Amino acid sequence: MSGSELSASPQPDRHCDPCYVEALVDCPGSPQVLTYRIPTGHTIAVGDILTVPLGRQQVGAIALRLTPDLPRDLDPGQVRAIEAVASSSLFPPGYWTLLQTVADYYHSSLMATIRVVLPPGLLRRSQKRVKLLPPQNLGPEAPLSPLAQQILQVLKSSKTGDYSWTHIQKKIKGAAPGLRELQRHQRVAVYLQTQSPTQPKTRRVATLIHEQPLASSLTPRQQEVLQFLKQRGGELWAVDLMGSTHASPGLIQTLARKGAIALSDRETLRLESSLMAADHPQSLTLHQRKALEAIQSVQGFGTVLLHGVTGSGKTEVYLQAIAPILAAGQSALLLVPEIGLTPQISDRVRARFGQRVRVYHSALSEGERYDTWRVLLQSDPQVVVGTRSAIFAPLGNLGLIILDEEHDGGYKQESPAPCYHARTVAHWRAQLANCPLILGSATPSLESWHRVQAAAPWPEAAQPQPVVPQPSPAAPAGSALYVRLPERVHAQPLPPIVLVDMRQELQRGNRTLLSQRIQQGLAKLQAEQQQGLLFINRRGHSTFVSCRSCGYVVECPNCSVSLTYHHTHHPSTPLLRCHYCNHTAPQPPKCPSCGSPYFRYFGSGTQRVMEELREQFPTLRVLRFDSDTTRRKGAHRELLTRFSQGEVDLMVGTQMVTKGLDIPQVQFVGVLAADSLLNLSDFRASERTMQTLLQVAGRTGRGTQPGQVVIQTYNPEHPVLQAVKDYQFQAFTQSELAMRQALQYPPYGQLLLLKLSSPNPVLVEQTAQEMASLLREMLGALWENFALLGPAPAQVLKVARRFRWQILLKLPENLEATPLSTPLPLDYLRSRCPREVRLGIDVDPLHFG
Ligand SMILES: Nc1ncnc2c1ncn2[C@@H]1O[C@H](COP(=O)(O)OP(=O)(O)OP(=O)(O)O)[C@@H](O)[C@H]1O
Ligand SMILES: [Zn+2]
Ligand SMILES: [Zn+2]
C-alpha cells in the first residue's frame, strides 16, 4: 500500500487457507510488523484485532496484510500461530488505505497514526485465563501429578473457578506442564479474554405498563408521576423520572410493585445526548437553493467551496444537504474546528435529525470514545458532528463530508504526530468514499480559494463532469465547485465596521484600554436591552510582569518566555503561569532582583479587561469566555446558554467568541488590540487577521438591527484593516495570493518544517547544521527552486527544558493533498539524528513557533 494508490481496496479474501498474516504488534517500546500463521479454520480480515504470542506473552496486534507465502528468510517451522481474533469488523472498507496515506504523507508511522485515530485501549492486551471444567463422568479419574493438583487447588479457591494465567503462574512456579496436563484431561479450559477498556455501563429504565393497574389503586401522587411518564413517551431513565417529578426511589419502587411500571437495567452507551425540540427544514432563500443544487449536482467525489458571508445560512444548507443522504441510508460527517463549537452545532443537528446524531471529539472520555466507536460501526445512517479527529470516525457508508469554517487553524494537529490537517484528510476520505466534500466558510482559506479559482461560480459553471474516483489523491480539477451566498438570510446588511486610532485616544488623554467608541457602545447595552462581545487576542491577565525600578521580568525556569499573570477573582492568590509548559508560581511580593515591591503589568489579557470593565461599568453583567473559564466539561454549553438567555450583557473572550455564535440580540462587537493579530511573525498573519476580524464582526447585526463593530488599533492605515473595514475579502485575497505566488509560499509551494529539540543546546544546534547541509546537497539536486530556510532557533528557543531549532523547507510544487512526488530522505535524516535529539516533521505547517 502506498500513498499514491488511493482507491478503496475490495474486502480482503476471507478464505485464504492456509496462509499467513502480517500483523502490527504492540510490542513494548516500539510496535513491529511480524508474520504469524493463521491456524486452519480461522478466518481473518485486514483490520481485525488479534491476540498473538510474543515471547512468553500474549499481546494485541492488528492484521495488516494476508499473504499466502512466507518471506524467504523465514522458516515456516519458526512462525508462530495467532492465538485468537479478539474483535473483527472494526473498520469500514478503505479505512486502512486512509490511515496508510496519512502516515505516508505526514511522514509518520502507521502505528503513530493508529494511536492518534483509534480509541485508546482497543489494542490493549487480552488476558489468558484458565477455568475449571465440570467433572465428567467418564469412569475413574486419571491420577494427576502434584503440579496439576496444585493448579486445581488454586482454581478451586476462586469462587468462579477461574483465574488469570498470570495469577496462577505467580502462585505456582513452572506451572506450564501442569496446565498442559489438565488440558489433556479436560479438567480445565484455557481462554482469552479481551480486556474491554471499559465495562458496559447500565442504567435503570422505567417503562410504563398500566396506567390503571387492576390489582391495586394508585394515590394521586403516584398517578401524577405515571402521567408524566406517559407524556414523555412511556419510557424514561429512572433518575430522570425522579428528577423531573421529585419522586422518591420508594415511590418508583411502589409503582413497579403495583405493576404500573417495569424497572429494568439497560446497557447505556456513554453518548452525549440532550432533549431537543424538533425543528423543521426552513424554506430556502434563492441563494441557499442554488447552493444546495450545486452540492447535489456532484456525482461521486467532488469538492464544493461554499463561500457564504456570516449569517447567510450555511448551516441550513448543510442540514438540507445531509437529509437526503440519510434518507438514502448513508451517513454524513460534519466537522467544526473547535470543541467549543460542538454544543451549538450538535444541538442544531440533533433538532433536525434526532437520535441519529453522534458527537465525536478528543475530549470525550475513554469510555465515551469507545462507545461512540461501537455505535458508529453499526450500519445505520448517522450524522457525526465532531472536531478534527472525527474525520477518522469509522463510518462505513459515508455519503457526505462537510467542514464548517474550513479556513480555521483548529483543523491542524500540532502534536502528537502525525501533524495532519483534517481538510487534507477529508479530501482523501471523500475520494475513498466517492462522495462530495463541502468546505464552508465566510472567509475561505487561500488554499481552498486557489483550488477553485479556475472554476467559474455555479451555476454559470459547466455541468461538473461525472467524477470517477481518481488514482491520485489530488482533487481532479473538474470537480471543484465554487458557490457563493452573498447576503444574509433576511438580506440584513453586514454590520458597519469602524477603526479607532488608539494614538489619537492617547492624545486626547484616554489612558484606559477602552476607546471612547467602545465605552459608548457598552454604555448603551443595558439601556437598550442588547448584548455585546469584546474580543481580545490573549487570555490571562497581562502578557508579562516587570519590576518598576529595575525592569526585572519573571521568566519561566523551563522555557525562554516570560510568565503570564493570572488572577481569577479577588480573594484568590495571583499566579504567574507559563503558557508553554504550564509552570505555575505565586506572584512574588517583592522583585527577586532588587527587592522593590512595585510591579508593572504589560499587555491586556481577558482578566485585565474584566477588571477595567468592573471599574468603569460596575453594573454591567460581564461573562468571561476563554480557555481558562471553559476548562470544565460542559462549561462551553453552560456559559453560552447563560449568554443566549440574556443573563449577561457582555461576553469577553479570546478566539472562542469569534466563531459560530448566532444570537440576534448581539448588537455590539468590540476588538481591543487588532495589532496583536497583525504583528505575528508569520506569513499567514494577514490572512488570519482578515479571517478573525470578519468572523467576529459577523456575530452582530443578525437580528433586525444593523449592529456595530469597533476595532481598536495603533495602525488604522494597515491594508488588511482597510480591507476588513470595507469587507473587501475578494480583493484582499487576490493581492495576498499574488504575494504568495511571488514568494512561493502555499498554496503555490509546499512547506515542510523539521523540528529538532534536545536538552543539550550545543548538540541540537550542531545536528540542525548538519542536517541542513545534508538536505541542501540532496534536495538541491532534485529541485531548481527548492529553498531551505535556516536552520534557526525556534521563536521560543527553550520549552520545557528542551532547546529547539528548526529547518524550513520550501518545495516548489503545489503539493497540497498530494504526497510528495519525490520522496524526501527523511528516514536517512532520522538515522543520522543523535539519540539525545528529537526530530519532528510537520508537513504543511501552520505554526512556526
Ligand atoms: N432559509 C432560511 N429562512 C429563515 N431563516 C434562516 C434560513 N436559513 C438560515 N436561517 C437562520 O439564519 C441564521 C443564520 O444562519 P447560520 O447560522 O446558518 O449562518 P452561517 O452562514 O452559518 O453563519 P456564520 O458563518 O456566521 O456562523 C440562523 O438563525 C438560521 O436559523
Ligand atoms: Zn527590581
Ligand atoms: Zn514554561
From TrEMBL:
Residue ranges occupied by any Helicase C-terminal domain in the UniProt entry: 586-740
Highest taxon in the source lineage: Bacteria
Metal-binding as UniProt keyword: yes
Residues that bind Zn(2+) 1: C547, C550, C591, C594
Entry keyword annotation includes Iron: no
Positions contributing to Zn(2+) 2 binding: C556, C559, C578, C581
Annotated catalysed reactions: ATP + H2O = ADP + phosphate + H(+); Couples ATP hydrolysis with the unwinding of duplex DNA by translocating in the 3'-5' direction
The entry's keywords: ATP-binding, DNA replication, DNA-binding, Helicase, Hydrolase, Isomerase, Metal-binding, Nucleotide-binding, Primosome, Zinc
GO biological process: DNA replication, synthesis of primer
Cofactor(s) the protein needs: Zn(2+)
HAMAP family in UniProt: PriA
Family: Belongs to the helicase family. PriA subfamily.
UniProt-recorded name of the protein: Replication restart protein PriA
UniProt organism field: Lyngbya confervoides BDU141951
Organism taxonomic ancestry: Bacteria, Bacillati, Cyanobacteriota, Cyanophyceae, Oscillatoriophycideae
